[in-house]
Amino acid sequence: MVRHAAHKFNSIQPQLLMTWKAAQQVDILLQDERRHMEEFKAKYDNLRIEMETALENERRTVSILVSEKVHLTSKLEKLEDFESSTFYLQQSFQQVLTLLIRVSSFRGFAGSGTSQMCRPG
Fold it and tell me: What is d(CA 55, CA 67) in angstroms, rounded to the nearest whole number?
């Protein structure tokens, strides 16, 4: 029986050796794949951080642009109000000037008529 066991062991020994070598190769491949996976994970993490940073910068830029738009819109509204006020002031000034010219010429007309009436004839 010992002979039979020894014979059987001798017959399967090459298969065991091949299996052990194959297991070592699989282990090496597995270690390589783990290393590749870690490299890809590190690259992924870096890209994720870069993307989050870019998105945060974009949000800040949009916020600044919105704030600037609000500020410029406010300035534009004030400028439009100023221009409108200036226009109405110019119109009022023109009306007052026209009125002054009419009053002045009426006084001149009235004054010239009075002076003619007061002249001894």
Answer: 18
d(CA 10, CA 7): 5
One-character DSSP codes across 105-121: HHHHHHHHHHHHHHS--
Tokens of 87: 């226009």
User: Which amino acid is present at 10?
Assistant: N
Residue 27: which region, alpha, beta or left (left: phi > 0; alpha: psi -120 to 50)?
alpha
**Cα separation, 71 vs 79, whole angstroms:** 12
Q: Can you give the pLDDT of all 121 residues of the chain as single tens digits?
A: 767 677 777 788 888 889 999 999 999 999 999 999 999 999 999 999 999 999 999 999 999 999 999 999 999 999 999 999 999 999 999 999 999 998 888 776 665 555 444 444 4
Q: Phi, psi at residue 71, to the nearest 5°?
A: -60, -45
- Residue 83: what residue type? E
Token code pair at residue 119? 């002249």
